[in-house]
Amino acid sequence: MSETTGIVAAGADRSEEEISRLATALGDPTRRRVFFAVRQLGRLVSKDEVAAEVGIDRRLAAHHLDKLVAQGFLEAEFHRRTGREGPGAGRPAKHYRLAEDERAVALPARHYELLASLLLKAAADDSRAPGDVLERVGYEFGFGVGQAEAEAGRARPGRAEVDAVAEVVSLLSRYGFAARSEGTRTIRACACPFEELAKADPGRVCALDRAIWRGMLAAFDTRATLDVSRSRARGDEACVAEVASGTAS
Question: Nearest-CA neighbor of 197 among 232, 149, 167?
Answer without folding.
Answer: 232
